[in-house]
Amino acid sequence: MSTTLTTQQLPAGTWAVDASHTEVGFVARHLMVSKVRGYFKEVSGTVEVAEDISQSVVDVTAQIASVETGSADRDAHLKSADFFDAEQFPVMTFRSTSFDGETLTGELTIKDVTKPVTFDVDFGGVGQDPWGNTKAGFEATTTVNRKDWGLTWNAAVEGGGVLVSDKITINIDVQLAKQA
Q1: What pLDDT, in 10s, does the model give residues 105-119?
Q2: Alpha-carbon distances, residue 141 vs 31, 102, 110, 156, 168 (angstroms)
Q3: What pTM was estimated for this model as a whole?
Q4: Would you state the pLDDT for residue 4?
Q5: Is 61 within 8 Å of 33 (Cβ atoms)?
Q6: Which of 107, 116, 156, 176 has the most CB within a 10 Å radius?
Q7: DSSP track, 126-172
């Protein structure tokens, strides 16, 4: 059972991303009329929680080849040079530069481009699983323009508009495991 805490009460130390209970997802508009959702299946990382939460550091990596959208053809296109170019740039990384308990800012690197991003963060709390492991949960959301990272491929559609929106929402649901 989780105990509701503020991030100021999060125990200091090293926390690892619990990949089996974490999702790094994204949402894009398709044909400008509906949404396509996807996520990266392979995510790893650590959070070094400092006594002063503002000194904490988040360091996360997603494997580009693990992208899943529910369509094998679309997944292959996303992995191609038109989008992420997984062969040349196999990982996407995020490293924080500041955290105030509700806002997480850092450097997001996609392909060979690094840009600052800011996530709105909701802390879910801390709890122990049935095996005595301490876990913490967070949700984080931001909206970015994919073109800022060189993800510029698109196609015009009949009647105006484009196939893929420039605006992408990134949604992260992460569970962290306290390390010994």
Answers
A1: 999 999 999 999 999
A2: 23, 11, 17, 28, 11
A3: 0.90
A4: 43
A5: no
A6: 176
A7: EEE-TTS-EEEEEEEEEEEEGGGGT-----B-TTS-BSEEEEEEEEE
The b/e string for 30-68 (b: 16+ C-beta within 10 A; e otherwise) is: eeeeeebebbbeebebbbebeeebeebebebbbebbbbe
| CA neighbours closer than 13 Å in the CB half-sphere of residue 150 | 13
Q: How far is it, in rounded angstroms, from Cα 32 to Cα 44? A: 32
Q: Which two tokens stand for residue 105?
A: 């800012």
Q: Which two tokens stand for residue 152?
A: 């510029």
Residue 21 — left, alpha, or beta (φ > 0 → left; ψ -120 to 50 → alpha)? alpha
At residue 155, what is the residue type?
A
Q: Who wins on pLDDT, 7 or 112?
A: 112
Q: Which two tokens stand for residue 42?
A: 């392979």
Q: β-pairing, 67-68 with 34-40? A: antiparallel
Q: What angle do CA 169, 171, 174 make, to 5 degrees?
A: 165
DSSP label of 2: -
Q: What is the pLDDT of residue 148?
A: 97
Token pair belonging to 95: 């490293």
The residue among 100, 131, 92 whose CA lies nearest residue 118 is 100
Convert the pLDDT of each residue in 38-77 to its tens digit: 999 999 999 999 999 999 999 999 999 999 999 999 999 9
C-alpha–C-alpha distance, residues 1 and 18, integer Å: 18
SS3 (DSSP) at 71: coil
